[in-house]
Design brief:
This protein is an alpha+beta fold. It has helices spanning 2-8, 89-92, 94-99, 122-140, 167-180; strands spanning 13-15, 20-23, 28-30, 40-45, 54-60, 70-76, 107-109, 118-120, 141-144, 150-154, 159-160, 185-186. The protein has a three-stranded antiparallel β-sheet with strand order 1-2-3, with no helix packed on it.
């Protein structure tokens, strides 16, 4: 009865520090604390597309030395003029993207012809990627075209950006692309 009266706006409530609520009609009850009541709010941008919807990420445990921080909720930022607190279906699922136990958090390598993935360290992976990129560039770089014009292009390598790349990552991918002379490029933030 208390909930229906509150929902209808018939009664007013006051809440004490203990979480007890009292109505103007004398009824009492306990109000549950919201899951975001003691969280740290961080404002960010949804990474899924080029719209740039603002999100508020609620984390808990990030100020305690003995607790691993955890994302407990992600919602649209109502103060944003872009999305006014709303999110599309992909944006609503952002918490699952961030907290998924299936999210890859280490380097995996599958050798040519191999059926399984092998875990690698970053110290092994970065020099290997640099060497393979350099070898491809050496094989396919064109300094001049058939008419003798300077083109400085690399057409045997393509670059693909994903919808979860941040604006900063897309900016760096663009710089990386221009630095290597890569022409085939696909991304939501086509630089």
């Amino acid at each position: 009865m208390l909930r229906s009266a509150l929902a209808a706006g018939v009664v007013e409530t006051t809440t004490s520090a203990s979480g007890k609520a009292a109505t103007s009609s004398g009824e009492t009850g306990t109000i549950k604390e919201l899951k975001i009541a003691r969280t740290t709010q961080t404002h960010s941008i949804c990474p899924y597309c080029a719209v740039g919807c603002s999100v508020t990420i609620h984390t808990i445990g990030d100020k305690a030395h003995n607790v691993k921080p955890a994302v407990v909720h992600i919602e649209g930022d109502p103060a944003s003029p872009i999305n006014r607190g709303t999110l599309c279906p992909k944006g609503v699922g952002l918490k699952e993207f961030v907290t998924s136990d299936q999210r890859v958090t280490r380097v995996l390598h599958r050798a040519p012809g191999a059926a399984t993935w092998k875990e690698m360290t970053w110290d092994e992976a970065v020099p290997r990627m640099a060497r393979l990129i350099k070898d491809s560039r050496d094989r396919g770089f064109e300094e001049k075209d058939a008419q003798g014009r300077t083109v400085n292009r690399l057409s045997n390598t393509a670059l693909i950006g994903g919808c979860t790349d941040t604006n900063e990552v897309n900016f760096l991918l663009g710089r990386f692309r221009f630095g290597l002379g890569i022409l085939p490029y696909e991304n939501q933030a086509r630089l």
